[in-house]
Amino acid sequence: MFKEVNMSDNETVILDFEKTIVEIEEKIEHLQAITNSKMDMSAEIKKLQKNLKSNMETVYKNLSPWQKAQIARHPDRPHCLDYIRALISDFVVLAGDRRFADDAAMVCGIGMFEGTPVVVIGQEKGNDLDSRIKYNFGMARPEGYRKAQRLMEMAESFKLPILSFVDTAGAYPGVDAEARGQAEAIAASIEKCLRVKTPIIATVIGEGGSGGAIAIATADRVLMLEHSIYSVISPEGCASILWRSGDKAKEATEALCLTAQNLKKFGIIDEIVPEPLGGAHRDRNQAIETLRMALKKNLQELTGTDYAKLKKQRTAKFMKIGSQFIAADTPQKKK
């Protein structure tokens, strides 16, 4: 069994656009603390609560892509192990790629989801300094992707559906990872996703960065939490290439169209999973339960489909995504 991540070391992180909301929350807490039989502050509290809800609805309805990126990276947001602990019963970790080593950033195993045996593959970022170092901030090395491939093969052998949880800034770019074939491992993982004859449901729960995310998100159904992000490169990486400066990350975020809303419009993902008002980090339990229902629905829809047909449809789906953008970039001949 996996060890639960200790959340007690986290400090509360307040994003710039949340400051007014936090101030109202603190006023409500203060009034609740001083309310007693001699001093009834219920009317003022009710007024502040109404103001709080109105402020939150306004702020979170009009988030910019950069603000969504900040929420997607929020340290208090539920991570892979949080979803596994809540959604997958009898979870057993399966370690190692049978070639080199085990990669902690890529969490793999088997368990039960709503009474159905499943294979689980996910990226864990960690919740405090020690766990972030242990999980390498969610950036897997080649052995992580080869471990994922091993689990996909096992899922196919035992006809088990695959649930993947995507949350990474990208694959680990270190010299040691490159020396062991990082690019090949990612490409092989994408290929395995396309070839495996069993249902795959991928969910971007936070940050889906580059090939490191695509390697386990080439699925029959790709879901994204409402305030998560998914792109071919991180905003900072894009800014360093285009503007030679990481300070342009905000502009890069706008250009990348990496929000769930944009990607759903382009047909890159299949479904947006709503988050609690204020983001998943404000109500972890509700966020997890909403995802539970979305996964259950999609798994029921895929169950019973002929595996060969499923594989064919999956390949066609991603070929269509590629062809539509190639067509858009191809200059049209003048008549």
Which key phrases capture this entry?
alpha/beta, 2-enoyl-CoA Hydratase, Chain A, domain 1, 2 domains, eight-stranded mixed sheet, 14 helices
Care to describe what's here?
The protein has 14 helices and eight strands. The chain is globular and about 70 Å long. Strands 1, 2, 3, 4, 5, 6, 7 and 8 form an eight-stranded mixed sheet that branches. The protein folds into two domains: 16-62; 68-329, 2-enoyl-CoA Hydratase, Chain A, domain 1 (Alpha-Beta Complex). A hairpin with a 2-residue loop joins strand 2 (106-113) and strand 3. The protein has helices at 19-34, 42-61, 65-72, 80-87, 129-134, 142-157, 175-179, 182-195, 210-214, 235-242, 249-256, 260-266, 284-302, 307-329, and strands spanning 89-93, 106-113, 116-123, 162-168, 200-209, 221-225, 229-231, 271-273. It is 49% helix and 15% strand.
Q: How is the topology of this model organized?
A:
Elements (H helix, E strand, L loop, with lengths): L18 H16 L7 H20 L3 H8 L7 H8 L1 E5 L12 E8 L2 E8 L5 H6 L7 H16 L4 E7 L6 H5 L2 H14 L4 E10 H5 L6 E5 L3 E3 L3 H8 L6 H8 L3 H7 L4 E3 L10 H19 L4 H23 L6
Parallel strand pairs: 3-4, 4-5, 5-6, 5-7, 6-8
Antiparallel strand pairs: 1-2, 2-3
Helix pairs in contact: 1-2, 6-8, 10-11
Tell me the CATH architecture of the largest domain.
Answer: Alpha-Beta Complex
What is the number of beta strands? 8
For the biggest sheet, the summary is: 8 strands, mixed
End-to-end gap: 66 Å
Briefly note the structural class of the backbone: alpha/beta
Sum up the overall morphology in one term.
Answer: globular
